[in-house]
Specification:
about 550 residues; alpha/beta; Udp-n-acetylmuramoylalanyl-d-glutamate--2,6- Diaminopimelate Ligase, Chain: A, domain 1; Beta-Lactamase; 4 domains; five-stranded mixed beta sheet; five-stranded antiparallel beta sheet; 20 helices
Length: about 550
Amino acid sequence: MSIIVDYRDRMRDRPRASLGRILHDLGTTLLDVAASPGDLDTEVTGVHIYDPLDELIVPPGGILLAVGVQRADDICALVERAGQAAGVVVKLPVDVDERVRAVVLETGVAVLGLTRAASWSQVAALLRSLLAEGDLAEPGEGPPDDLFSLANAVCALLDAPVTIEDRSSRVLAYSGRQDEADQGRVETVLGRQVPDRYLRMLDEHGFFKQLYQSREPVYMELDDENVINRVAVAVRTGDEILGSIWVAVHEPLSEQRQRALADAAKIVALQLLRERAGADTRRRLRADLLSTVLAGGTDSAEAAERLGIATRLCVLAAQLTGDSAADPARGESDGQRFCDALALHVGAIHPKAAAALVGSVAYAVLPLQPGGPDSSGEEARAVRVAESFLARVGPRHAANIGAGRLALNLSHVARSRADADRALRVLRARGATGQVAGYTSVHFESLLLQVADVAAAEEQAPTGPYQRLLDHDAEHGTELSATLRAYLDAFGDVNAACAQVHVHANTFRYRLKRLVEISGLDLSDPDARLTVMLQMRIFGR
């Protein structure tokens, strides 16, 4: 019992997010100090990615990820421009000379080296997890106990590095001292997921079966000189398994430490349940606030202020293209993970971006700096951001994204959201997957869909030559309307059109003559051609 009391005391004494604490938690395997101003007690407030094409905005205490920066001259220039930052991260090896050290001492901004094995998205995700960015805590609310605090407390109790994982072996939190473990643990922490080859090894030895059948810690001898043995315990509430705690050890735990680990699993279970409920509440709140901003109106300014978003922005509307009707629960879970990934992506680009799931659509508001005399440049940049996101999530999340026009102020945000929805609908109508469309590029297709909506609502039907052609096809089983569509799509090129419908050119010419006789359509009249082409698009036959 004394162990539990001590454990909770450790949880309550969580230090603030200083640069030194973050470096200690991540370990020198991932981040190391290349040039220090001396004191690393600066409080870290956020993570930001350097883009040479955008205005550099780094608030006090921000960590700047210097993507593509290598030479000492460039490092010096960037540190000087980011004078309020807590640190600048550069991929190893870092080119540090006397000029860099002098600028670091002058500005107080540390230069950190990132291992080349880690991607920028990985380090951004890890840092944001440590900082717990995005929590919509009320003013005056103290920092909650979190899984990282629990992992560090268990590490202190067991004197060994710890990870807390979910049922899919995704890392939810990890302790410090990970550099004391093996390469497999380093890869696990960097990727936030246990690598497949280690999962197969554990499964082949039957360790997962032992773990989930036992309520006590399980010691696992891995018989590999490059891998440290593990002790793991399932984290459960009743019969539901929420995840597990994994400890890298060289020998079995003592009886006292086994009890401590089993007791810690109960507290982690409570924290996971609290975080599940809290995450649901925060997500609902964030979705409600973002919905208010997207709708415009009198409350949008207050909602935007609570979310901390900028006013000059483009709206992105993203939706998974898979069939979620077969398994609604899985569809909702996949949609939320997709939205979380989108929020991380846009948040790494701009600190005042925001994203939330509204229904089945993940909306993101992306602040953009002016790039020209009109909004077309900003919309194109929003499209590139969306394309980059889909390229990153790849086959894990098959989706489409629509991008709205630039909103110059909050009163225009609702219009940008409508633009994004319409662009997304065009992609759905095309049957596309993995595509991005800006509203201006699909404007006319969107208008046709809107006209089709009006026609359907008013129960309107085709008229004139096109209606006569459809009636003849229905009565005699002919395909004259398909012949007409192929002819118009080929701009009157009979050879191209007959190849499209797979008939001989003479047969096609005969059908073309017949459809003119039956419908009365004058193919030499451009207005008549336009009229029938629009009817084909609007009525979709």
